[in-house]
Structures are given as C-alpha cells and as structure tokens.
Amino acid sequence: MRARRAAYAALALLTLIWGSNWIVSKIALRATDPLVFNVQRTWMAVVILFAALAWQRGPLWPRDWRAIVVTGFFQTTINFGATTMALAGGGAGRTSVLVFTMPFWTLLLAWPVLHERVRGMQWVAVGCALAGLMLVVEPWRWQGELGPKLWAVLSGFGWAAGTVATKYFQRRRGFEPLNFIAWQMLAGVLPLTVLPLVLPVPATQWSAMQVGLLVYVGAVSTAAGFLLWLAVLKHLPAGTASLNMFAVPVIALIASMLVFGEALSRHEWLGIGAIGLGLAIITLRAWRAVRQSGPSQELAPLEGG
C-alpha cells in the first residue's frame, strides 16, 4: 500500500512535469532554432537513459534492431521533431491538445496493423476527435497558424504509430522497458542530428536561463520523466497510469493562457471540448478494461512532446 501511494504521488508529479514541459519548451525556443533544440534535448536524454541502463546493469544490447529503428523513427524522429516545430510557430496549449489526439490515431492504425477493430463507443470517441480536430485546425483558413497546427497533428500521428509499432513487435518478443526506450530514442535522434548540419540554422543564444531550460526539458522532463514513468508502472496498472494523459494537455493549455496570454477562438474551444470528450471516453474504457482483465505486461504509451 505504501508503494502504491508513492506511485500515485509520483504520477501526479510526473503529470505536472509533462504538463509544464510545453511551456518551458516554448520559452526555450525563443533563443534557439527548433531543429537544434530538439537535437540538444534528445541527446541529453539519451546520455542519461544509457547511464541509468548501465547503473541498473540491465541488458545493454537490444533484442530486435528492426523494432528499435521503426519505433525510433515514429516515436522520436517524427513525434519529437514535429512537436518542436509546432511549438516554435504555434501556441503551447493549442499544440499540446493537437498532439494528444494520439489515442485516436492509435485506434485507427491498430485496426489494419494489429487487427484490433474499432467498436462501440470507440467510434463515438473517434468521431468526437475528428470533429474537434477540424474545428481546432480550421483547414479552410489557409493563413495564420495552420502550419504549426499541422505539425502538431503529425506529431500525434507519429506518437500513435510508434505506440502501435511497439505493440506489434512486442507480440513477437518481449522488451526490457528501459533498454527499449533508450535505444529507440538513440535511433530516432540520429536523423534529426543531421538536419542542423546541412540546413542553415541560427546559432543558439546561450545564457544561464537557456541552459536551465534545456536541462529541464532534456534531463528532467524527457529522461527523468521516462524513468519515473517506468517506476510508476511497476506499482500501477498501465491503464490507470495512462489516465494522466488526460491531464497533461489541460495543464499545458491553462498554463499557456496564464503565461503567454494564449487566446482561443470559439471554434477552437468547441474543438478542444470535442477532443477532450473523445479522450475521456477512450481513457475510461482503458481503465475499465484493466480492472476487468488485470494489468497488462505491455509497454504503456510514452510521453508525447
């Protein structure tokens, strides 16, 4: 019981860390190019994760290189890369909501890849998400923040594809979670590392504040966040722990409105409400499924952004 209470406290802390990460990243991007910042924070996280892997004396080499490359491409290259591009040009709160359409993309991708059919209330959730997505993105308005919104949607799609790929490969052979997270992040950051070398990007404007922001995003939110997430999963079912996904974009949205004065149109509020309703349906169904069938041994979805 003491361990479970500690796990719930850790989950609450992790939710605050990941919710505030959107605001910290947005501030950090004022002094650096999004491509450069993404590489900096991911390499920092990779070094810390491999140090933790060595300290735990777990298996060093991955079991399935194809799983590492495929998952790393979607989870790190696409998801992390697109999130940073979205934040550079769009509002932090709006971006977080669009990235967290990930569960709906997961349902749609799992149908052809994992042969998991969308049933019942899941269709209602998908319908709410798609309607909300149209209201927030407003594709009929080809100006303003359309580009950052599309980057955010791509990030959510990449996150979902990485989750489905993880489940697909995990059916064939199990993964040690920390080993898998560290290696897929390393594989995914390699293509991102090349981009600032071949594209003309401005130099980072270093300061003590910028270093602190980078440490928070790379070391605290990304690396320590994943380690804390794995620790939580040792004591809580994945479905219960994943309920924190519902709170992260809410924290990011409220914080963005307070810090940056981010204003949303009536259409965007309606769209966010529809996305939130669909996300609530999916997370509650997952929670009920865990209570009925017991905890799963599969890796729960990782943090997005």
List the quaternary state of the chains.
Answer: single chain
Largest sheet: none
Parts with pLDDT < 50 across at least 5 consecutive residues: 296-300
Number of domains: 1
Structural class call reads mainly alpha
Mean pLDDT: 85
Order of helices and strands: HHHHHHHHHHHH
Q: Gyration radius, to the nearest Å? A: 18 Å
Number of helices: 12
Please give the share of residues in helix. Answer: over 70%
**DSSP strand content:** under 5%
Distance between the termini: 32 Å
Q: How would you sum up the global shape?
A: globular
Q: Give the beta-strand count.
A: 0
Entry summary:
The longest helix has 28 residues, at 266-293. The chain has one domain (2-293).
Set down the secondary structure blueprint.
Elements: H1 2-28, H2 34-56, H3 65-89, H4 92-99, H5 102-114, H6 121-137, H7 146-172, H8 177-198, H9 208-233, H10 238-241, H11 244-260, H12 266-293
What does this structure look like?
By secondary structure, the protein is an all-alpha fold. The protein has one domain. Helix content is 78%, strand content 0%. The protein contains twelve helices and no strands. The chain has helices at 2-28, 34-56, 65-89, 92-99, 102-114, 121-137, 146-172, 177-198, 208-233, 238-241, 244-260, 266-293. Mean pLDDT is 85; it is low at 296-300.
